[in-house]
Design goal:
Blueprint: H1 3-15, H2 18-25, H3 29-43, E1 48-51, E2 54-57, H4 59-86, E3 91-98, H5 108-116, E4 120-127, H6 129-137, E5 143-147, E6 155-168, H7 172-175, E7 189-193, H8 197-206, E8 212-217, H9 220-228, E9 233-237, H10 238-244, E10 249-251, E11 258-266, H11 272-280
Parallel strand pairs: 3-4, 3-5, 7-8, 7-9
Antiparallel strand pairs: 1-2, 5-11, 6-9, 6-10, 6-11
Pfam families: HTH_1 (PF00126), LysR_substrate (PF03466)
Family: Belongs to the LysR transcriptional regulatory family.
Keywords: DNA-binding, Transcription, Transcription regulation
Length: 282
Amino acid sequence: MNLKQLRYFLTVAQEKQITAAAKRLYIAQPPLSYQLKQLEKELEVKLFIRTAHGIELTDAGRELESYAEKILDLAETAKDQVHKTAQGELGTIKIGSASSSANVLPSSDFKKLAEYYPNINFDVYEENTFGVLEKLDNGTIDLGIVRTPFNHHGIESKTLTSENMVVVTKDQKFLTQGPIIIKKLQKKPLIIYRRFEEIFNQSFAHAGIKPFYAVKCDDSRTAILWAQQGMGYALVPETIAQLYARDQFVVIKHNSWKTHLQLVWRKGKRSSLIQRIIDLFN
């Protein structure tokens, strides 16, 4: 029993005539009759009886009819779903998002994608950069949005943003100075996002400054919160300050203190859907 036989069977059941069914199927009567006989032979039942008004289904034929309709509908759905998956129009996108990626995820392009391909859905995992990279490595997610610096071994990436580091503080006098140089941070109680510590240390050492780190943490939002409570001067990426500390920060003028948001994925073959998402980010 195959899909072609079931399609032939349903057409005959609907038309109630071999001649009309063959015409509708664009085939000759002999091959149609042959396929129906093969179907009856395999099932070991009579599916049709001839009457004065044409062909009618037997009880067994009516039973098969309900199954045949479901099977053909399911086959068509499977074909459609497989095609959409292959074309990147169907599936789940598992994406990891660092806390500092709020300005790029979600984007207007994601909204357009969801409107154009309503069968695509998103599974979002929120972690810090290292948590996102760990999930990418163990296959929990397909894509990640993380902040430099990090180890690029085994992954490919696309840079999404480039931005300055800024100082978040309650010190209004400090904020009125405009863009500052790092020497202005000397003797200040600094609050840092721990993963930037090595970069800060190198720059301070080059400038002959011994920094005082009042607070070290693992999330830039935490650094901002402590600064807003008057615990010190938080050094964070500019986009995070714009989101959580508007009018409470000043830009630092230092070329090596640049940070980037990057879209990352594992090296190797990837699905059409994942490639479609990668291409969204220009």
